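re: ur question from yesterday

yeah so i grabbed the chain u mentioned. its 165 aa long if i counted rite. heres the sequnce exactly as i have it in my notes:
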Amino acid sequence: MRPPELRSPVARAVLPIAGGLIVLTLIAGFTWAMAAYISSGEVDSSERLAPSVFTVGQVEYLADIIATDGPLLFAQPGTAAGERSIVVDHRGDDPATGWRVRWAFPADRTDACPVTQQVGTDTFTDCEGRDIGVDDLALPDDGVRPVVYDRSLLRIDLRGVTAAG
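ran it thru and got these structure tokens back, copy pasting raw so excuse formatting
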């Protein structure tokens, strides 16, 4: 059986467009449904979308890297920290202790003044061109802290993050 022929110019112009709109509507509906499923219907971010604990890695490996190349700068890690970047530093000889975390902006500025790291050093340059060290970076909110699990795995607990400001 042959498909019906569209004889009028209006039908030949309108039906393909209507069909395309229906397909686009179905795609948009599917995308919305998947996003609703992933977020579990929650309005606030969930652990799946913005984890409140950021796993950094094995403490011995990270301590060696920091001793050689300076602190680790994580630009917008996709966590509860939102758009804020974080700096992870280590002091001392014991890889299981001596960890500290800072926001990646100067303590005397807001997060609108991010820093960049001078490669292979513990020196950062802020938005005004000033060279600053880790101690000059902003302290994180109360409750934001490095946590070492089983003396081997470093995670940053971001549950204390408050609104950026």
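noticed a couple things. The chain has two domains: 1-38, 53-157. also Residues 9-38 form the longest helix (30 residues).
anyway ttyl
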